[in-house]
Design brief:
Blueprint: E1 12-18, H1 24-32, E2 50-56, E3 60-66, H2 74-88, E4 93-99, H3 107-119, E5 122-128, E6 143-145, H4 154-167, E7 184-188, H5 202-213, E8 217-221, H6 226-232, E9 239-242, H7 247-253, E10 260-262, H8 263-271, H9 274-280, E11 292-297, H10 308-321, E12 326-331, E13 344-347, H11 355-367, E14 372-374, H12 375-382, H13 386-389, H14 394-400
Parallel strand pairs: 1-3, 1-4, 4-5, 5-6, 7-8, 7-9, 9-10, 11-12, 11-13, 13-14
Antiparallel strand pairs: 2-3
């Protein structure tokens, strides 16, 4: 996969925040060397978050965000501020832009800075418009002075971004850390009405690439061909990885001597917190009539008949729990701030979300005391094979006791 084809979920997300007319958009354009954002002296020119996937040297593939001022006013302004907060949830590196001509921070700027520290979000505080400041000051470890007009401090800002980017490098692997060179892995990819025409879904593509990069071989088939593939192999595969929706069928075909897991469970470990999501599966056994369950998906694909998130998963949950539960669905960047109405959150594997956003969603559920599990974990539990699907992960097995 080339840098230009790097998915949003694998890019470093850099977002610019600040009050209206702090010069965020001008700074975005100066850093990227492109006119990504409309620039005006009128406060509040940027209304909705603007994003651009690009390659920014020396960082590599990034997603740049320009946001509305967090001091926006009125009912519409409040909605814009909420959108800005949503961007913060997925931000790997935040750029807080303030006015160099102002001696002290405004209360909302100071509060935002404290929020970044509380979240442990990597950030750079840039005092922009240094060309308009009467008191020229030097950069410190905490503050960088810059001017989007003269170009002062832009190179220094890029250097700091590069240094912070190294701290955010995701060294996690999807599956290759469980493999040795020469291993064989069988991947089960059902092709049904919900499968995209002419291609494999993103988690399958990325897993195959990770296997190949590890010097291993990937055999891909549908569940109907799985018995023949296993019989044709001279050596036993290291593991079988299946699409979660086929867990029940595939578990009956794969001998117990071969480890079995799913793409979704692998991505729970890669993007989220597998242990927390295994713990959350226990809530499936405690659901009662009228309980509310949130099923949240990170992408916004077109729903088709037999959709796993809106059709199959709700049916499995209701059958397993024996309860007439009320299920709510969200997708894309939508994720409720108030989770108190829900007894359980079931989340997708988050292939379209970056690790920061998925981690923040998990933290969000923990803070409100709401259990969370992901599609693969939930489906394995409903099929009575959760323990088997976690054999590759001793730490997760320990959670089950």
């Amino acid at each position: 996969m080339s840098l230009n084809e790097t998915t949003s979920g694998e890019r470093l997300h850099i977002a610019f925040f600040g009050r209206r007319n702090a010069g965020k958009s001008s700074l975005v354009n100066a850093v990227t060397g492109q006119s990504l954002s409309v620039v005006s002296d009128v406060a509040g020119t940027t209304t909705d978050p603007v994003k651009k996937a690009m390659e920014l040297l020396p960082l590599g593939p990034v997603m740049i965000w320009d946001t509305a001022g967090f001091d926006d006013e009125g009912d519409l302004g409040a909605l814009r501020v909420e959108k800005t907060r949503e961007v913060l949830a997925k931000t790997d590196i935040a750029i807080l832009v303030t006015n160099a001509a102002e001696d002290a921070l405004y209360p909302d700027e100071a509060a935002f800075l404290e929020d970044l520290k509380k979240r442990k979000t990597l950030y750079i505080h840039v005092k922009n418009k240094s060309d308009l400041s009467e008191n020229k000051q030097s950069d410190t470890a905490d503050v960088l002075y810059a001017s989007a007009v003269t170009g002062e401090g832009i190179d220094a800002l890029k250097e700091r971004l590069g240094a912070l980017a190294k701290q955010k490098q995701n060294n996690k692997k999807i599956v290759s850390d469980l493999l040795n060179p020469g291993d064989i892995v069988v991947l089960v990819c059902p092709i049904d009405a919900s499968a995209p025409k002419g291609r494999l879904i993103l988690p399958q593509q990325q897993t195959i690439r990770d296997i190949i990069d590890a010097g291993c071989s990937a055999f891909v088939c549908q569940d109907t061909e799985l018995p023949g593939v296993l019989a044709a192999l001279k050596n036993l595969p290291r593991m079988v990885i299946t699409d979660s929706q086929a867990f029940g069928r595939v578990s009956k075909m794969v001998p117990t001597t071969i480890p079995l897991t799913s793409f979704s469970i692998l991505f729970a470990r890669y993007k989220g917190d597998l242990l927390s999501q295994v713990r959350g599966a226990a809530a499936l056994s405690t659901l009662s009539d009228g309980d509310r369950v949130l099923i949240s998906e990170g992408c916004t694909h077109h729903r088709q008949c037999g959709d796993i998130g809106t059709v199959k998963l709700p049916a499995w949950v209701k059958k397993f729990s024996g309860a007439d539960v009320d299920i709510t669905f969200t997708s894309g960047g939508e994720f409720p701030s108030d989770l108190s109405p829900y007894k359980l959150v079931i989340h997708c594997g988050a292939c379209m979300l970056n690790e920061t956003e998925m981690q923040n969603r998990i933290v969000h559920t923990k803070e409100q005391g709401i259990p969370i599990c992901n599609y693969g974990v939930a489906i394995a539990h409903c099929n009575g094979i959760l323990r088997r699907s976690l054999e590759l992960f001793p730490e997760a097995l320990a959670v089950l006791g």
